Amino acid sequence: MHPYISCQFTLAIKPGDFPAFKALIARIVEATQQEPDTLVYEYSVNEDQSVAHILERYKVESVVSHVDTTFAPFGAHFLELCTITRLIVYGTPDAEIRKRLDPFGAVYMTPFDGFSR
């Protein structure tokens, strides 16, 4: 099993909702910063603020906790402000992780060579 799970989300931000989305993300990032096994958690947005990406990397044992505990209180509001249009998952997630990511249309990519530092 690979020790990390990385995810790249692509989000369509609803027109006019970027200010509210940005404010919500600040709260989510603040909560996520308390997770010691979340290694990367970055949001980026295109020029017209209609598309955002989330780049996430977790130690494999912390993905379920992030989804169920940290993100869950924000989830409904998050999905009111954006639509997840793509989710690519890198690593070897187990059945519990897949159960949480499958509803977002996850595409799973299995590592076969390379390294991380």
Describe the structure.
With 117 residues, this protein is an alpha+beta fold. The chain has one domain (4-109): Alpha-Beta Plaits (2-Layer Sandwich), CATH 3.30.70.100. The protein has three helices and five strands; from the N terminus they run βαββαβαβ. Strands 2-3-1-4-5 form a five-stranded mixed beta sheet, covered by helices on one side. Helix 1 (18-32) packs antiparallel against helix 2. The longest helix is centred in the middle third of the chain and has 19 residues, at 63-81. The mean pLDDT is 96.
* CATH architecture term: 2-Layer Sandwich
CATH topology: Alpha-Beta Plaits
Order of helices and strands: EHEEHEHE
Strand residue percentage? 25-35%
What is the terminal-to-terminal distance?
Answer: 17 Å
Low-confidence stretches: none
What's the story with the biggest beta sheet?
Answer: 5 strands, mixed
Envelope shape: globular
Count of extended strands: 5
Helix count from the secondary structure assignment: 3
- What portion of residues is helical? 25-40%
Main sheet: strand order: 2-3-1-4-5
* Computed CA radius of gyration, to the nearest angstrom: 14 Å
CATH class wording: Alpha Beta
Question: Mean pLDDT across all residues, rounded?
Answer: 96
- Please tell me the total number of domains: 1
Secondary structure class reads: alpha+beta
